[in-house]
Automatic annotation (TrEMBL):
A GO molecular-function descriptor: peptidyl-prolyl cis-trans isomerase activity
Keyword Isomerase assigned: yes
Protein name according to UniProt: Peptidyl-prolyl cis-trans isomerase
Record-linked InterPro entries: PPIase_dom_sf (IPR046357), PPIase_Pin1 (IPR051370), PPIase_PpiC (IPR000297), PPIase_PpiC_CS (IPR023058)
Enzyme Commission number, as recorded: 5.2.1.8
Cellular-component GO terms for this entry: cytosol; nucleus
Range of residues in the leader sequence: none
Amino acid sequence: MSSSSSSSDKVRASHILIKHQGSRRKASWKDPEGRIITNTTRDAAVSQLKSLRDDIVSGKSKFDDVASRFSDCSSAKRGGDLGQFFSCHSILLFVSLFDTALLFGPFGKGQMQKPFEEATYALKVGEISDIVDTDSGTHIIMRTG
């Protein structure tokens, strides 16, 4: 079985989201008032993610541990895993009244914001993306299935 997928397959991923001043929703599970996010520039978010990515790629840190500590997405409670039931502010295209969406299992095309989707589908299982920008903030993504 190939580690990459065809365009019709569903994928599974984990991510680390760092929100910043330009993020659509300036609050998170760890910063409900958005005080830190409002004062974080995109450049600062990118710098932090690059440093975190370097630690993961070098083996100094594990992706799920880093996601649990630093991600602004509530998927941090599952080590950044988006492949199971999750609640993550503003990352899906179909956002509910409370700006929270639910997803069961891997996701397919058209379910995530386009830059996130494209980056995830371009990865092989186990690979980690470079910085990905969406309306939600900046991400690094690890394809897990």
